[in-house]
Design brief:
Layout: H1 15-26, H2 29-33, H3 38-42, H4 48-68, H5 75-96, H6 102-127, H7 137-153
Length: about 160
């Protein structure tokens, strides 16, 4: 069996469970890059260390929304779209903050799209499915290629 004809590692795992687990992990990645920064809320007399949890929870929820949605059907479109839609309400708050504004909004939307892309892409690689309920087009394509290559290798009668 060639490397391209192997079944995905988690082909039989529930797609939603895989996406949720990936979302929980990937949702923390933006913290390493840009925040949110609690002090930007503190100056507005909002408890920043509590307010930033809205961002963390939203980013971790991206995995859930990638897992339950089916539109658009391709993972590389659905992942970033889900990420942006989940974090958009919080970024409107960033837009209203004097010490933040559009640069913070752009950074948070960009990282949300990246988290969505990573979750959906990793779920596709691990399960072979574009969405929950997909019959695994990736695994079907590799199985078809394997069947075709074995058919070409079988001897033909004259």
């Amino acid at each position: 069996m060639s490397a391209s004809a192997r079944r995905p590692l988690l082909a039989h795992a529930p797609y939603l469970a895989v996406c949720i687990a990936l979302g929980i992990v990937a949702g923390w990645l933006p913290m390493l890059l840009h925040g949110p920064i609690p002090e930007k809320f503190d100056v507005l007399y909002i408890e920043g260390r509590i307010a930033i949890w809205g961002y963390y929870v939203a980013r971790m929820a991206i995995g859930y929304w990638v897992g339950v949605s089916r539109f658009p059907s391709r993972w590389y479109l659905r992942g970033p779209l889900c990420g942006v839609l989940v974090v958009l309400p919080l970024t409107l708050i960033s837009l209203a903050m004097p010490g933040c504004g559009f640069p913070c909004m752009r950074a948070n939307l960009g990282s949300a799209a990246l988290v969505g892309f990573l979750v959906a892409g990793a779920a596709w690689l691990l399960t072979g499915k574009h969405y929950a309920g997909d019959d695994g087009a990736r695994s079907q394509a590799t199985a078809a290629a394997s069947t075709q290559s074995s058919a070409n290798a079988s001897p033909t009668s004259p």
